[in-house]
Amino acid sequence: MATPHIAAEPGQIAPLVLMPGDPKRAARIAAEHLEGAELVSDVRGIGCWTGTWQGTPMSVMASGMGVPSVSIYATELFRFYGVQRIVRVGTCGGMSDKVAVGDTIVATAAHTNASLSTLFVPGISLSWTASYPLLRGAMDAAATLTDATVHTGPVYCSDHFYFANPDIIGGLAKYGTLGVEMESAGLYACAAAEGGEALTVLTVSDHLFDGSQDMTSEQRETLYANSVRIAAAALLA
């Protein structure tokens, strides 16, 4: 049965899902990394492809940008399509002097200024964290890569791309936040609400404090091979 945002039939989406934000990146990942990938949904231009990765059924679906968008797709995948694990494969801006453009970040948690942290339990601002089995699988995979610099730690999920309060950014960086993006808190919250598992693996595409090596838009769409390898290994772990 299709949902308002996904046209796939039951069984057409695998229990394991890679989820980039950009629909073009989703199409490229499906074409380059999945065997026998077939388009099973394309509502509003948000494609979902299903094939296999190393013989295991796996889907790739875009989330769009921001917490509201990823929350729609993640909820429908977990609730209506039997998806068990979603790993976001995206980009972020570096916030720490420990990370550089081109590095990979595995997000253990997602701080956020989005209202969803206060929606679920009255009077409490919930913390959103990755699923440990996926996190462990990602780090086991990262340990085998000799051509990648991989960091683990929290990221900041901002609800406004152009709102960069120096006090907020500086404070988060001081307490170990590695990067800023816009979807992880929504994904982690939906996984917690729906009984699924979720993780985010990010490529650092630019840096808030040093813009000299920022990636171009084209590079952001293509330079993510390490993140995909780590994310897929986590899904299979």
Keywords:
237 residues; alpha/beta; Rossmann fold; 31% helix; purine-nucleoside phosphorylase activity; Nucleoside_phosphorylase_sf; EC 2.4.2.3; Uridine phosphorylase
Rg calc: 17 Å
Q: Characterize the main sheet.
A: 5 strands, mixed, barrel
* Average residue-wise pLDDT: 93
Which CATH class? Alpha Beta
List low-confidence stretches: none
GO molecular function: purine-nucleoside phosphorylase activity; uridine phosphorylase activity
EC number: 2.4.2.3
Domain Nucleoside phosphorylase: 16-232
Protein name: Uridine phosphorylase
What is the topological layout?
Blueprint: E1 16-19, H1 23-33, E2 35-41, E3 48-53, E4 56-61, H2 67-80, E5 85-94, E6 104-112, E7 128-129, H3 132-142, E8 150-157, H4 166-174, E9 179-181, H5 184-194, E10 197-207, H6 217-222, H7 225-236
Helix pairs in contact: 2-5, 3-7
Report what the structure shows:
There is one protein chain. This protein is α/β, with parallel strands linked by helices and 237 residues long. The chain has a single domain, classed as Rossmann fold (3-Layer(aba) Sandwich). It contains seven helices and ten strands. It has helices at residues 23-33, 67-80, 132-142, 166-174, 184-194, 217-222, 225-236; strands spanning 16-19, 35-41, 48-53, 56-61, 85-94, 104-112, 128-129, 150-157, 179-181, 197-207. It has a five-stranded mixed β-barrel, surrounded by four helices. The longest helix is centred in the first third of the chain and has 14 residues, at 67-80. The protein is globular and about 45 Å long. 49% of the residues are buried. The model has no long low-confidence stretch (mean pLDDT 93).
